[in-house]
Specification:
elongated; alpha+beta; 5-stranded antiparallel sheet
């Protein structure tokens, strides 16, 4: 029935792929994107809830800080800065622009002494010792929903004023969002994705050795990538820099499944199957389905995270894995009907498999000792593994946005804000008393060495208010006239806001500073929140989510392996070579001081799910050869006279007694090592393209995935066979050749595949 279906509909399936390719490309290129870091943060944590309450009271306060180096030629003077502020405020996306002179003007109107004014402006809009001056442009509600457009409009005004040059610095969360959109967008990723596709095309030809079939498999891979992206957009996923890895992941999985099917097709042809297309599908579907299941389990384990993009990636990658399986198993047989020519494998590949099997099994004890020692040494470093969620670290080191951010933070002002919300109560307390309360709290905040500057409504009033009631009344009346410009109070001046500019000292962390400020203000009616506090909570959530997802994936996959192998002990034992590579890589990262970021945390569960694929293929062959060796040993022993039961059974001219586990491990590794290496090369070639990205998280994800997959190859090809030989009890033994002879029995090989 399967053979009849593909004979009748193969050309239709190939035509469907060709006709829908361009529409799917168009849909994939027009998928929605969203790199708004605020929406990524944990939704259920207290930090997120406090931040949402802050936004409801004061609104989402986002601003662009535009700084100018006044020591350079053609630097803007005070008049030019004022004109620039006016032009910015005429934009519908900018609510207010504040220059140093505007800030001074407000304080002069409220009778703040000149020396105090300069002290308060420095560290906010004027550098303390350097030549930088800045303008803070606050975004309106319209600007908040279109950050990239707002940044583009501001740059256009700077160009019009001839201020868009290397001496003009910009930073702020809207700029980061726009830059993340650009770096994580399709245009920026197009170059490295084309390079990835080119590498994979060359690798496909190397594995298939036939251009027509290579092009068709490549076309199916592209179709699967675009179908997956279009489906995700239809479901409602918004692409971001985390989901940008989905196309490469889809490509890697699809190519691996296609190559596996072609490997089974070769076996079917060599055994002389009447219908090799159907026979290959019969042999391929079970191990491929199990491999997809374990991969999906690893991916879905990421859904425990409260970080939105991580949870989205869990579901999107599982959909990608299923799409890859459907396309790989469903469309590749059709390609073999249309183009049935597939070159035979070279005998040299089989010889390499025999050499590797003998080398590994004969050195099992040394391999087990070396790999376990490496695991212990690397594992010692795991407790020191740290997480990092610094937004600026998501940008390339040579990015002007990052360089501007570093210089502004070093010379002008700290851009990391912690918002302190002071609850002055709902009673009829006079304004002056509320002002005194906020001022006292600000003084306590300034006692912390990491606090660089604060900004609140109290900073616009003199340190000592007039004692004359008339003068005080006139001062408060002038302040009341500016009430519409008040961004620092809410709910009828019940809540007052203090923006704390923090410089995290070397050897400390944002979280430590926030915790110390919280402890320092525990007796005051103050709540600390803001984007910095929210990012810090996300940083803690990254490490928690990483640990939870890896352990959940480990638990689910271990149970699955126990069920598939029908043995608790063997299921547990086969997971050791899959866990060890994770310990090697992440332990090594800890020793090197490399933190876990939002992209790297994806790699652990995914790599674990993918590495188990090879383990299952190897164990299927191992179990078959173990049963076969046991049956042969029992038959030969039964044929011996009772008095000779302890004799050696001669099978070769140079017999020696070996365990059945050794025989099974040798044969299983001989058959599976070359496909293991080929599939790993396919996956690492696909992931290598990610390392070429200018977007730091994408590049780091690619490097870590490559390291994990190569480590998993070591675990499957070296550690697993060695462990099986060392840990199996030598209760049964047969005489066997000291080295496997390069023989081939096509029907036996096909039967092994069928049993597997």
């Amino acid at each position: 029935m399967i053979n009849g279906f593909y004979k009748r509909f193969s050309k239709h399936l190939v035509a469907m792929v060709l006709l829908t390719q361009l529409p799917l490309i168009w849909l994939a290129l027009n998928a929605r994107t969203n790199n708004d870091t605020e929406t990524w943060m944990p939704e259920t944590t207290p930090a997120r809830q406090r931040y949402e309450e802050f936004k409801r009271a004061f609104g989402a306060e986002e601003f662009l800080l535009i700084a100018f180096d006044t020591s350079k030629p053609n630097a803007p003077d005070a008049e030019m800065l004022e004109a620039l502020c006016g032009r910015l405020e005429r934009l519908p996306s900018i609510r207010r622009a504040m220059s140093p002179e505007r800030m001074r003007s407000i304080m002069r109107e409220l009778e703040v002494p000149a020396d105090i004014i300069e002290e308060r402006v420095k560290g906010l809009l004027v550098s303390r010792d350097g030549p930088l001056v800045g303008i803070a442009a606050a975004l309106s509600d319209f600007g908040l929903v279109n950050r990239s457009g707002t940044v583009a409009e501001v740059r256009q005004i700077l160009r019009y004023c001839e201020l868009d040059n290397d001496n003009t610095l910009m930073c702020g969360s809207p700029l980061f969002a726009a830059e993340l959109d650009r770096l994580g967008g399709k245009q920026a990723n197009a170059i490295y994705f084309v390079i990835t596709l080119t590498i994979c095309l060359g690798l496909l030809y190397y594995l298939i050795r036939e251009w027509r079939l290579t092009a068709m498999v490549y076309g199916v891979t592209m179709w699967t990538i675009n179908s997956t992206n279009s489906l995700l957009d239809l479901i409602g996923f918004e692409m971001n820099f985390v989901l940008a890895a989905i196309p490469v992941l889809t490509m890697v999985l699809t190519m691996a499944i296609c190559v596996h099917y072609l490997y089974y097709f070769q076996e079917a042809v060599e055994e002389g199957a009447v219908h090799p297309v159907a026979r290959a599908l019969q042999l391929a579907w079970w191990p491929t389905c199990i491999a997809t299941l374990t991969t999906c389990l690893g991916e879905l384990a990421l859904s425990v995270s409260d970080i939105v993009p991580i949870r989205q990636f869990a579901y999107a990658s599982a959909i990608s894995s299923l799409m890859s399986m459907v396309a790989g198993l469903g469309l590749t047989p059709a390609l073999m009907v249309v183009c049935p020519r597939l070159p035979r494998r070279k005998a040299s590949e089989e010889k390499r498999g025999i050499w590797l099997a003998n080398a590994v099994v004969s050195r099992s004890g040394k391999i087990v000792f070396a790999t376990l020692l490496l695991t212990v040494v690397a594992g010692i470093g795991l407790p020191g593994l740290k997480s990092d969620m610094t937004v600026s670290e998501l940008l390339p080191a040579k990015s002007k946005v990052k360089q501007d951010f570093v210089r502004v933070n070093r010379e002008l002002t700290a851009t990391e804000d912690v918002e302190a919300v002071v609850n002055c109560g709902t009673d009829s307390r006079p304004f002056v008393e509320k002002l005194a309360l906020v001022r006292r709290i600000e003084e306590r905040i300034h006692e912390h060495p990491a606090v660089d500057q604060t900004l609140s409504l109290s900073r616009f009033f003199p340190n000592e208010l007039p004692s004359d009631p008339i003068k005080l009344g006139m001062l408060l009346k002038r302040a009341e006239s500016r009430r519409t410009e008040d961004d620092f109070t809410a709910h009828g001046q019940e809540l007052w806001r203090v923006s704390i500019r923090v410089r995290v000292p070397k050897g400390s962390s944002r979280g430590k500073v926030i915790n110390e400020l919280t402890e320092q203000l525990k007796d005051e009616p103050v709540t600390l929140t803001g984007m910095t506090a929210l990012v810090d909570s996300a940083q803690e959530e990254i490490l928690i989510s990483f640990t939870q997802s890896v352990f959940m994936a480990l638990g689910l996959i271990t149970i699955a392996m126990m069920i598939f192998l029908r043995s608790i002990w063997r299921g547990f034992l086969t997971m050791v070579p899959n866990v060890a590579p994770l310990v090697w890589i992440y332990g090594g990262m800890s020793w090197l001081g490399m933190p876990i970021d939002i992209a790297i945390m994806l790699s652990g569960s995914i790599a674990l799910g993918m590495s188990v694929d090879g383990t299952f293929h190897f164990m299927s062959r191992f179990r078959y050869h173990q049963r076969r060796a046991e049956a042969e040993a029992a038959t030969l022993l039964a044929a011996l006279p009772r008095s000779d039961e302890s004799a050696t059974i001669p099978i070769s001219s140079e017999p020696h007694r070996v365990s059945i586990a050794e025989v099974a491990a040798r044969h299983a590794l001989m058959e599976s090592s070359i496909p293991f290496i080929q599939s790993t090369l396919t996956a690492t070639a696909g992931m290598f393209g990610l390392t070429l990205s200018n977007f730091a998280p994408t590049a780091r994800f690619g490097w870590v995935m490559i390291a994990l997959m190569l480590a998993a190859l070591v675990g499957d090809v070296l550690m697993l066979p060695a462990l099986l030989k060392v840990t199996n009890r030598p209760r049964n033994s047969v005489a066997h050749a000291s080295r496997i002879r390069p023989t081939r029995d096509a029907s036996a090989t096909a039967q092994q595949r069928h049993v597997a």
